[in-house]
Amino acid sequence: MSKRLRFLVVLIAVCLSLTITGCSLQDLLGKNKNKTSAKKESEPIIAVSLNEQDPNKLLISKGIEDLAKKEDVKVKYINSESKEESPLKDAKILIYQGGDESILQESQSEEIPILALTQLPSGIKPEGIIIPDQEKAGELMAQTLVGKVTEGQLVILQGDPNESGSQELLAGNKAILSKYPKITIHTISSPKGSESVARTGLVDFLQKNPDNVQGILAHNESLAVQASEVLKQTQLDKKISLIGGQASIPSLERMAKGSQIGDIDTSPYLQGANAYQWAQKIIKKEPLEVNNSITSEQGEIPAKVIAVKAVTSSNLAVIQKSYTTTMQTAEKDKKQKEQAESKGKEEKDQKKDQGKDQEKDQTADKKEEGQSGDKQNSVPPGVEKVTERVKTETTRDYLNAEGKVIGTEKTVNEQVKTVPPEMLKQQAEQPKDAEKAEGDQAKDDSKKEEK
């Protein structure tokens, strides 16, 4: 046989073998990957801990959620109601704005990267931070004020002075106000968790300078609310100009009513959207689009600074509509999500309960089968002969015409008979056949009713 002929014979044999086994030549060569058998990797989980006191918290989460939906990524929010032992379980990154600080330590111990949002957490070096342009916000606040006031005393209600964002806001305020020598600045700081200090300080200062204060700059919404309340109580709301540094639906409503003359749009939705994008880049170990950096006690932190703009009477209507529409959509989405989660939990509980009921039924069936089996297997193996001893007792009463017993007779009869073992087995199988027949009859009756 020639070499060429031998090659053809071998090739035909290989082809026949592939046909019989259902394999292709690509399978044999390892070029065809079985995509259906490849296990799909679980989608990454992004853990998010937001500041519960932030009036724009829902708008920030809306920015995160909208992008997460497009990429089918699960977002897990951590708050005071989280009852899981490990809320960071399976999380690939933590976006942290505020909340329980112990979650930061847990994140570090689990080597889960942290992305800061709006402010740097104390004692922690995150991978980066998404933050509004605080210095620019401070400048815009002051510019809005000097448009109406160029002399007199001004009060600055500063947030926590230990936060870098607060320091930048104050620096922005002073950069503009320092150009007006007839303006005197009085700063009242309020460390974290002690906003009431700012309120008390403002009341005292207004009492001492009832006619000299011309304006108030409140760095955040919490401080702006307290300033607005104090001005109304002291009937100075028409005389003293109030400007906020964190626009929200309540602050925009105050502007619409005339009790506040300006605010700063910090774009909370964009903060959330950018936080999501950076979180994904950190997970995938891709380079960040850094446009700034922030110096912290832990060193330089890469920053994505979000542009801000002043809210005045000229653009109030447009910005107020944008905030309101986005908030309404966010609330609707949140409600739908909660309903879906609640429904899922109910279905899970129902399945769990059904499983328990089935387990109980199976246990009962096994018990009945066991009891039945004991009766059915009453004939031990190897039995050649079975005897039954039947004892009967008869009591006979003799009654007169009135029905009174006038005599009684008792007889006892005992018989011993032999029973073939096969007969006992047949008797044991009869209940099974009767039960099967009863079930079949029930099915037939059900079909007739349906017809």
TrEMBL record:
Residues 326-451 are annotated as: Disordered. Its main location: other. SUPFAM superfamilies: Periplasmic binding protein-like I. Keywords: Signal. The keyword Lipoprotein does not apply. The keyword Signal applies. InterPro entries: Peripla_BP_I, SBP_2_dom. Residues 330-372, 385-396, 430-451 have a biased composition (Basic and acidic residues). It comes from the Bacteria. Belongs to the bacterial solute-binding protein 2 family. This is Substrate-binding domain-containing protein. The lineage of its organism: Bacteria, Bacillati, Bacillota, Clostridia, Eubacteriales.
